[in-house]
Amino acid sequence: MTASRLAPDFVGYPEVRRGVRALLGSRAGAHRRPVPACPEWTVTDLLGHLIAIAERVLERHGGTPPVSPASTVPELLDRWDDVGEDLDRRLARAGGRSGEIMVMDAYTHELDLRAALGMPPPAEHAAWAPSFEVLVRGFSGSVAGRGLPALRLRTTGGSEWTVGTGRPVATLTAPAHELYRALAGRRSPGQLAALEWSAAPGPWLPAFSWGPFTPPRSPGV
């Protein structure tokens, strides 16, 4: 996984949709498969969530979601593309990163889906770097908001971020995919503690609960 320059939302978002469609297009019956990273969801539930978020963002940008019903995986994928293509155009006109949280959520769930289907993460992805930046920013706010000392995050590939406020007093090093999943609430406290820390990890473990994310009790995938 390469953390390259930040692709615009209207580039990363359709790549997620294409990736999810490719994963599900040749897997009949996948709609009932559970998604371990989202314990209460099946694949169908995950798609429903992605569409609901897209429709909410579309309305915020002045668009109107389609009213046609969708229930099967092919119908849900088509509806997501209908909404997403309208969103892509609006995000391109808006510029900036007005859809970055939606893109991060969608890309994170693409990884959830890959894990559920036993597929590896993509080697490269346009949504990877901007989604990682959103997670780092949110985790940084959690570290600072809890009054914890600043922490350096480092991937084994050499990328670095400082989270929190001030000079970092410790470093957490992990493969890029593991660090992403940790920041996105997909790693248990035991898995987090088992990563490579330059100091005892205990003080920072509570900070991995932030925004919509809470580490699972059992090891995550």
Structure write-up:
The chain is α+β, with helices and mostly antiparallel strands and 221 residues long. Helices cover 48% and strands 7% of the residues. The chain contains seven helices and four strands; from the N terminus they run αααααβββααβ. It has a four-stranded mixed β-sheet. A hairpin with a 4-residue loop joins strand 1 (151-155) and strand 2. The mean pLDDT is 94.
Radius of gyration: 18 Å
Major sheet, described briefly? 4 strands, mixed
SSE-based structural type: alpha+beta
Q: State which percent range the strand residues make up.
A: 5-15%
**H and E order:** HHHHHEEEHHE
Strand order in space, largest sheet: 2-1-3-4
Overall shape: it is globular
Q: How much helix, percentage-wise, in residues?
A: 40-55%
End-to-end separation = 17 Å
The averaged pLDDT comes out at 94
Q: How many distinct helices?
A: 7
Can you tell me the residue ranges where pLDDT is under 50 for at least 5 consecutive residues? none
What is the tally of beta strands? 4
Can you give keywords for this protein?
four-stranded mixed sheet; 221 residues; 7 helices
Q: Which secondary structure elements does this structure contain, and how are they paired or packed?
A:
Layout: H1 9-25, H2 43-60, H3 73-94, H4 100-116, H5 128-145, E1 151-155, E2 160-163, E3 170-174, H6 176-183, H7 189-193, E4 196-197
Parallel strand pairs: 1-3
Antiparallel strand pairs: 1-2, 3-4
Helix pairs in contact: 1-3, 1-4, 2-3, 2-4, 4-5
Gist?
The chain has 221 residues and is of the alpha+beta class. 48% of the residues lie in helices and 7% in strands. A hairpin with a 4-residue loop joins β1 and β2.
